[in-house]
Write a sequence for this structure.
């Protein structure tokens, strides 16, 4: 057990969390679970920013987190390309960066936690080919076009169905 004087000398760490949106239950739950887990660590402070599906706002949010001298950035980029420079900047300053669910157009980050969206797209393509028995028409419904999951799923899907010229 630490005495009061020792506890006050424990270094505080600031974690910046830049979420692309907090507008759905899945992402709200993600924040709640982070807050719950961090409640066990009094020397950790979570600073949350909601980009509200706006890449320009998310860039501004991350700059505000940098100004607060964060020790770690957790980010789910709204769109890959516009967020790449600011995330690279954070990483190149020596601040660890954890990407959640979505990637950037660079390897300048510490860790990625998310699905293999390319493989998900390939599996959907296999299912579509099987369902259509190799011929027919497909309409692809995508998420946010500038997000890495939408792009990776599309690419996996197309790589799987391109071999079937009777599918359009």
């Amino acid at each position: 057990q630490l005495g009061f004087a020792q506890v006050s000398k424990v270094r505080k760490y600031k974690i910046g969390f830049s979420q692309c949106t907090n507008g759905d239950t899945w992402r709200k739950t993600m924040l709640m679970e982070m807050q719950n887990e961090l409640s066990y660590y009094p020397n950790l402070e979570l600073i949350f920013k909601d980009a509200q599906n706006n890449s320009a706002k998310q860039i501004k949010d991350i700059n505000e987190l940098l100004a607060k001298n964060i020790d770690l950035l957790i980010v789910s980029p709204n769109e890959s390309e516009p967020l790449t420079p600011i995330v690279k900047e954070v990483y190149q300053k020596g601040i660890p960066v954890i990407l959640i669910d979505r990637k950037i157009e660079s390897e300048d980050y510490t860790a990625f936690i998310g699905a293999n969206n390319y493989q998900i797209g390939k599996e959907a393509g296999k299912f579509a080919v099987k369902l259509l028995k190799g011929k027919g028409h497909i309409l692809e419904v995508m998420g946010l076009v500038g997000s890495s999951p939408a792009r990776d799923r599309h690419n996996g899907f197309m790589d799987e169905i391109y071999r079937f010229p009777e599918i359009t």
The chain has a mean pLDDT of 92. Helices lie at 4-8, 25-38, 55-67, 80-92, 117-132, 148-161. The radius of gyration is 20 Å.
